[in-house]
Input
Amino acid sequence: MTLSLSAKAKGIAPSPTLAIDSKTKALIAAGADIVNLSVGEPDFPTPAQASLAGIAAIVNNFTKYTDASGIVELRRGIADKLRDENGLDYAPEEIIVSSGAKQSLYNIFVAILDPGDEVLLPAPYWVSYPEQIRLADGVPVVLETTEATGFKVTAQQVEQAITPKTKAVLLNSPSNPTGAMYSKDEIVALAEVIERHDLFVISDEIYERLTYGQEHYSIARVSLGLRDRTFVVNGFSKTHAMTGWRVGYVAAPQHLVKAMASFQSHTTANPSSISQKAALGALGTFDPATVTQFRARRDAVLEAFSRLPGLTCASPDGAFYVFPNVGAWLGQTYTGLDGSSVTVQTVDHLCELLLTDALVATVPGTGFGAPWNLRMSYATSMEALQKGLTRMTAFFGRFS
Ligand SMILES: Cc1ncc(COP(=O)(O)O)c(C=O)c1O
Output
């Protein structure tokens, strides 16, 4: 008898961003001087108020099960934040806290998708969306966008992709990996189509505070009709440099939150009690100087890229990634430091060479639905960034 894995398990690829991160860390552990521009996490420390609240939770033995949806003080604090910072009105009962926004998103897909239900997913997309949708028996329907359209879908594009099976539209503004942001007018236009076709919206707003021009506008703000069908997804990982604490949340009408809460109560139950207290401590501590630093780093990258003929890169309005198009080098010959030449056919191969030959870790765009791009994070020190850019410039100079 051969015991086999489920079709579901066999169909899931590991997260390519985490895969490249572990490969990079292994090289670093082996002594390689890698500049790691692959990671999607801020280099800033967790705010002291959060860490101290976490320590106090341990010392005070706040280490037991909590309400499976998160402690009410934290949900109240999140409701206040959504009201004060985002103009959104939610009661604590309309908020569920999970072990990272990653879990929040999976809860949503399980709560709303029946087998074969379609989710409209603008590409380039964050790597976990299509895998999570498939895990929940849904079908990701990819809507292509290009650099020329600012990596944004139009209302018309969404409307044309709608079928009787369409259940939801996923929006991620600012976007990982492109940094693209929808303006209020664009959000309102999308909202009109979404409401007319009676669809859910999953609005992943995890980078909402990291913006470099226009302000983030949540689709849940457009009207009560939109609020009724929107899952607002957010978390503490990116804006509070708390990736390892694993705290994310969703705000949505109570009946939707209840469905997610039932599922979560049988899977992980509450997120870590300690992390919840830390998140409570983090509320209100966002430092706008973070944005100033990220903007300076973004500008340094764009400036270096502007001197690389062949490379094109849209200027991101938010998040902490750039997503340059490196298509001009695909099919070209690369001569390595050891003098050997090789034709580089794919962005995966290019990123592999960039890592092993130039010692710069980036992520190929393939997993984001963009096989001509690579993702580079600028959530690292300016010094490391400059070192990485110098190496990249030399690397691209070795193509002919
Ligand atoms: C767009 C987007 N959504 C959600 C997440 C998940 O964040 P976490 O699970 O750390 O809260 C990430 C993390 O990379 C992300 O980039």
